[in-house]
Write a structure and sequence with these properties.
Elements (H helix, E strand, L loop, with lengths): L2 H9 L30 H14 L3 H25 L2
C-alpha cells in the first residue's frame, strides 16, 4: 500500500487501519524487561494484595503502576526544578 493511501485511511475516522499494520514485529522503545527479586515485609505484601484485589489487578501490576507513577513524579519534579532556575 502506498503511503498516501495509508495516510488517507488513517485520516478518515470511519476507516480502521489496524488490519493494514504488521504488529508481529512491533516493539516499544525502552520497554525490554529484566527480572528482579525484591523481598517485602509480610504487612506490605498483605497491603499490596488488598489494594490489587480492590482495583482488580495482580500484585505485580499494582507494584509496576505505583513504581512508574513515582518515577514519573520524580522526573517531572526534576524537570520543573531545572526550568525554574
Amino acid at each position: 500500500m502506498k503511503a498516501k493511501v495509508f495516510d488517507k485511511k488513517f485520516d478518515d475516522d470511519a476507516v480502521d487501519i489496524i488490519d493494514d499494520l504488521d504488529l508481529s514485529t512491533i516493539k516499544r522503545s525502552n520497554q525490554s524487561q529484566r527480572r528482579v527479586n525484591v523481598d517485602f515485609p509480610v504487612w506490605m505484601i498483605e497491603s499490596l494484595d488488598k489494594e490489587a484485589s480492590r482495583v482488580g489487578v495482580t500484585r505485580q501490576s499494582i507494584i509496576k503502576v505505583w513504581l512508574a507513577e513515582r518515577l514519573e513524579d520524580i522526573a517531572a519534579n526534576k524537570a520543573l526544578q531545572r526550568t525554574s532556575r
